[in-house]
Each structure stands twice: as C-alpha cells, then as structure tokens.
Amino acid sequence: VSEFDLINHFFKTAKVNRDDVLLGIGDDCAILSPPSGKALAVSTDTLISGVHFPESTCAQDVGYKSLAVNLSDLAAMGADPAWVSLAISLPEVNEAWLEKFMLGFNELATEHNVKLIGGDTTQGSLSITINVSGFIDPHRALKRSRAKPGDLIFVTGDIGDAGIGLYAILNDLISNQYIDFCMTRLNRPRPQVKAGKLLSDFRVAAIDISDGLLVDLQHICRASGTGAVINLDKIPVSDSLLQYYNNKPDWQAILNAGDDYELCFTCPENECDALFSVMTAEKIDITCIGNITDTGITQCLQNDKVVGIKPKGYNHF
Ligand code: ADP
Ligand code: MG
Q1: Are 91 and 130 in contact (CB under 8 A)?
Q2: Closest Cα to atom 20, ligand 1: which residue?
Q3: What does the buried/exposed string (b/e) look like for 192-209 if buried means 16 or more CB atoms within 10 Å of the residue's CB?
Q4: pTM beyond 0.90
Q5: Which atom of ligand 1 lies nearest, measured to the CA of 87?
C-alpha cells in the first residue's frame, strides 16, 4: 500500500462538501474562498501518542479527539469552523486502525460541517497535527485580553470529569458507570462551538479548558492585566464526579484537571441577563463561578474563606 493509496482511500473520501473549497485534496495546495467581510481564525494542535492521549486509546477516539481539541480552539475564539488539514505520522500502515481513526474524525467533521482539505502522511511514531480554520468577525473575537475588573466569570458544562477519566486509565481503576462516563469525557470532548459563536454577541474574553481551570483562567487574567476570585462552592461538577469523590470533591485535583474542553469566559455584569436568556434558549449550561478583580492574583474561596490551591497545569518542558 503506497502513501497515495492511503490518501485516496482514507482521506479523500470524507463526506462533507463545501462550496468555499475550490480545490481540495490531490494537488500541491488546496484553494479556498473565504466569505467577503470575514477574517480567518486559524489554529494548530498536535496530539502525540502517550502524551496527549494514553497509548491504549482506541483509533476511533483518537480521530474524534484530534479534531475536537482543534475545534475547541475555534470555539474559544467564537469562530465558525470551515476547513481542516491533517498531518499524520504512523508507525506502520494499519488499514483497520486508519479506518476507525477516520470514522471518529468524520463523525465530528460532519457534525460541524468542516471539510478536510489536505494534509501530509508520513512514517514515524504516532502523532497527529491538525490545522483548523474558521470564519470570524475580528471585532467580535473572544480574545483573552478582553476581561475587565467587575466582569463575572463563567464556565460551560461541568469541570473535572476528564481528569478522573485520565487518572482511571493510567492507574487501571476498575471501571464502573461513573468512571466510564469520565473516560468518555476524556476521549470524546465536545467542542463548545455553538456556545462560542453565541458569546461573540457580548464583550466576552474566553479560553477553552485544556490544561486546568485555574491555569487557563490565569491566561485570561494575564492577558487582561486582571486578577480573579472564584468560589469553589459554585464550580459545576457532574454526578459521576461526586460519586467518584464520595461527595467530597478534591478541588486541588479538579481545578488542575485538563482535557475537559469546556469554555471559561468572562462577561460584563450588565450583559449577563441577556447572556443567560440566549444560553437558556439554546439549552447550553453556563454557571457563574466568580468575578474578575484588579489585584493581579487568582483567589479561591470556599464558604467565604480563602483556600490555597496551587495551579499546576500541564507543562511539556
Ligand atoms: P506534496 O508532496 O505535494 O506535499 P503529498 O503527496 O504529501 O503532496 O499529498 C498529496 C495530496 O494529498 C495533497 O493534496 C495533500 O494535501 C493530501 N494529503 C496528504 N496526506 C493527507 C492527509 N493525512 N489528510 C488529508 N489530505 C492529505
Ligand atoms: Mg506532503
């Protein structure tokens, strides 16, 4: 099987079709036609086996997650996903593995109508680099620098499940329905694309939670020159997480759990009523967990008392 057979069989066959792709896979470049009046939001993320996902992760989940984490970056900017390229390095030609990888990838690509427009296929240890592009109104981008003292801090969904899923896999915990739920949250993160697009109607600063709520919130604070106070009692968690912790959540672990890919964002207090209406109408769960301050530090409160929690996001080096 040659590289070209692989390209034709596995990559060229993706089902999504878009009129703005003038030339797709098969030439030296793709040719794309962005809508007039929009800017492009572009992002790249690499997933390395054993670093970004456990080596035991099934091919279908690897395909799904590789695209999901990239779409999540577009979501955190408020962009509308359009195109994706896929550079994949494989230890060997394993057609059954590739078939399943593309099944997971295409499931999410179809859901978000993103077209695979090119890539690269090489031999090496398993690693996936994806580049996504989406359309955006640059004045409404959810830049990290947009937070101001007094803004409220929100998250979508629940926090901490993926961290439990990862711990369970790495430590061979005996599975049960709660742990299985957390593993699915780890392996199949749901990029909050719709939430991101809705947020762009407000003066919102956003980030997707890939490294841990605390460090990711600090990225917003650093970019905005602000501090933050969050209330642990308000952090939304799932029933599975509560079961796992016997109703005594370990906040040090939860606030430093990566891989949830929920959005953390800030919103001016006077825009919050409108924000809640929009999110409720679209059935998107958001929870206010604190507020932005002018102190430059991030403080965690529990029962109105300051608790010391060390930010420990993942650092590759
Ligand atoms: P070149 O040598 O010009 O870089 P390649 O032989 O690497 O071209 O790729 C041929 C075509 O197949 C190109 O259009 C490229 O974008 C596409 N392609 C290669 N690998 C992938 C992949 N993993 N996913 C999607 N498209 C791919
Ligand atoms: Mg190439």
Answers
A1: no
A2: 120
A3: bbbbbbbbbebbbbbbbb
A4: yes
A5: 23
Q: What is the pLDDT of residue 314?
A: 63
Q: Is the CB of 119 under 6 A from ligand 1?
A: yes
Ligand 1 contact, 29 CB (< 6 A): no
> Among 120, 127, 131, which is best to mutate for testing ligand 1, by the most ligand atoms less than 8 A from CB?
120
Q: Which two tokens stand for residue 271?
A: 């825009």
Kindly compute the dihedral angle of the four CA atoms of residues 192, 197, 203, 208, in this order, to the nearest 10 degrees.
20
Q: What is the pLDDT of residues 264-306, one digit of tens each?
A: 999 999 999 999 999 999 999 999 999 999 998 999 999 999 9
Pairing assessment for the beta strands 298-302 and 227-231 based on DSSP bridges: parallel
Pocket test for ligand 1, best of 4, 13, 16, 25 (most atoms within 8 A of CB): 25
DSSP secondary structure string, 62-82? Answer: HHHHHHHHHHHHHHTTT-EEE
Between the CA of 120 and the centroid of ligand 1 the distance, in Å, is: 5
Q: Is 116 in the pocket of ligand 1 (CB under 6 A)?
A: yes
Of 259, 299, 303, nearest in space to 153 by CA: 299
Share the mean pLDDT of the chain.
Answer: 95
Q: What mean pLDDT is predicted for residues 119-146?
A: 97
User: Could you give the residue ranges of the DSSP H alpha helices within 141-238?
Assistant: 161-170, 177-187, 193-199, 213-224
| Burial bucket for residue 93 (CB in 10 Å: 0-12, 13-18, 19+) | middle
Question: Residues, the chain, total?
Answer: 317
- Residues 167 and 162: their CA atoms lie apart, in Å, by 9
